């Protein structure tokens, strides 16, 4: 299933326009663009744009810069995750990782640039009011920074070659993976300016979707390992990382995935009741997660 449709097209064009407008040395832009265009599904920005389109189509244009900033942050995190000091992955999405394609120093700097530029894109967005920009900058910093994604990566590294409790695994995945999905929903609520009840339901969907997405990926790696696959599936084994299947077993991991998808759909049903709108376009993000059930 191709998610996004016209929103994907609009996002890709806006992303390319953003890249073209960059006043950076070519040697800096090339590794940034290489990773931005490495075949990602754009789930985070499309989740943001999709919910904005559901709630108020006229505000989609106001959400584009935030969606780009979110993709910049996600891409930077992948570049750094792949580094020899982190997961030491040489292939991502069938292509050489940034430090292999260029070199380690260039990859680090490309990630640094994407992170810094993400906040500049938000701060310079003239389509948003100042209070919205402050709220978005604050939420993105919390989701991606020292109490969010970066801390999740630290905990993930510290847990290698160790037996950890399930609660700790949940915390790692929430911080490392889930918080950017939650940010996508919070960002939509800030841009559309919904009431607190709707904002809470949107956050709840983002939380359950993020957990479901991680469990799905863990199950996918188990299937892939039986079929000869992308090195990222082997990376978790080599680094002896804890996953949902390794801690719970495959069947229990599937049951957890079923429950998270159910809870995400409960949030969507509540949103439909409160907003009097169809949220089927968000349910389309859940359908691919059922593949390994």
TrEMBL record:
Cofactor(s) listed: Mg(2+)
Which InterPro entries does UniProt cross-reference here? Isoprenoid_synthase_dom_sf, Polyprenyl_synt, Polyprenyl_synt_CS, Prenyl_diphosphate_synthase
Q: Which Pfam families match?
A: polyprenyl_synt
**GO cellular component entries:** cytoplasm
- GO BP annotations, alphabetical order: terpenoid biosynthetic process
Q: Which family does it belong to?
A: Belongs to the FPP/GGPP synthase family.
Its protein name is: Farnesyl diphosphate synthase
Q: Which organism is it from?
A: Facklamia miroungae
């Amino acid at each position: 299933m191709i998610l996004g449709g016209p929103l994907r097209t609009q996002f890709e064009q806006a992303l390319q326009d953003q890249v073209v407008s960059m006043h950076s040395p070519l040697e800096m832009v090339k590794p940034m663009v290489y990773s931005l265009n490495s075949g990602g599904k754009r789930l985070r920005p499309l989740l943001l744009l999709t919910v904005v389109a559901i709630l108020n189509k006229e505000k989609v244009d106001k959400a584009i810069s935030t969606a780009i900033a979110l993709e910049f942050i996600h891409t930077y995190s992948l570049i750094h995750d792949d580094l020899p000091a982190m997961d030491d992955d040489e292939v991502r999405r069938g292509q050489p990782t940034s430090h292999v394609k260029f070199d380690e120093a260039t990859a680090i700097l490309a990630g640094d640039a994407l992170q810094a530029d993400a906040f500049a894109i938000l701060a310079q967005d003239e389509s948003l009011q100042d209070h919205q920009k402050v709220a978005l900058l604050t939420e993105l910093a919390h989701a991606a920074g020292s109490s969010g994604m970066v801390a999740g990566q630290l905990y993930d590294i510290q847990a290698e070659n160790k037996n950890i409790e399930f609660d700790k695994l949940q915390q790692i995945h929430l911080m490392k993976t889930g918080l950017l999905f939650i940010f996508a929903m919070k960002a939509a609520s800030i841009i559309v300016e919904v009431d607190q009840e709707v904002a809470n339901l949107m956050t709840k969907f983002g939380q359950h979707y993020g957990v479901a997405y991680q469990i799905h990926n863990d199950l996918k790696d188990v299937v892939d390992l039986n079929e000869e696959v992308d090195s990222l599936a082997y990376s978790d084994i080599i680094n002896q990382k804890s996953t949902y299947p390794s801690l719970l077993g495959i069947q229990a991991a599937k049951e957890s995935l079923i429950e998270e998808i159910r809870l995400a759909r409960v949030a969507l049903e509540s949103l439909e009741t409160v907003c009097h709108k169809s949220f089927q376009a968000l349910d389309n993000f859940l359908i691919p997660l059922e593949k390994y059930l």
